Amino acid sequence: MNVRLTLIILFLSISSASFGQSAAYKTLLKGYYDKDFPIVYPYQNEIVEKALFLDTREKEEFEVSHLQGAKWVGYETFSLESLQDIPKDETIVVYCSIGARSQDIGKKLKSAGYKEVYNLYGGIFHWVNEDYPVYKNEEETDEVHAFSKIWGIWLEKGKKVY
What we know:
Blueprint: H1 3-19, H2 21-32, E1 39-40, H3 45-48, E2 52-55, H4 59-64, E3 71-72, E4 91-95, H5 100-111, E5 116-120, H6 123-129, E6 134-136, E7 139-141, E8 143-145, H7 149-152, E9 159-161
Parallel strand pairs: 1-5, 2-3, 2-4, 4-5, 8-9
Antiparallel strand pairs: 6-7
Helix pairs in contact: 1-2
């Protein structure tokens, strides 16, 4: 992790007590998200209800919990070949912990010709913080892989697993 990113995270985590964690989280996300890559919010049912969710976290994160019906595609091991059966006009929502890794995978999908690809705003952390359910083995759970102690500060609800 580079020094600048570490300092930003430290500043935001310290200052979150003074101006609200949600404001700090929004500031953090602005630093990661490209303005020209489309995002979707959990409450946008017209997209969310018809989308195929692709989980771009690592397998151990996915196995703790994921969005219902999500397909695991990973990040470090991501391969376009794993998506051969998905039509290029399918509505796809990519997600990870906060949306940085998923945006990278989303860009790869767009470059490969997938037409309707969105990044889930705030990732699985925001999803859970907004009281949307996550699943493990097709059963609802409150556990969420928090990636690390540093990143886990952004997960306000659910049971953190490291």
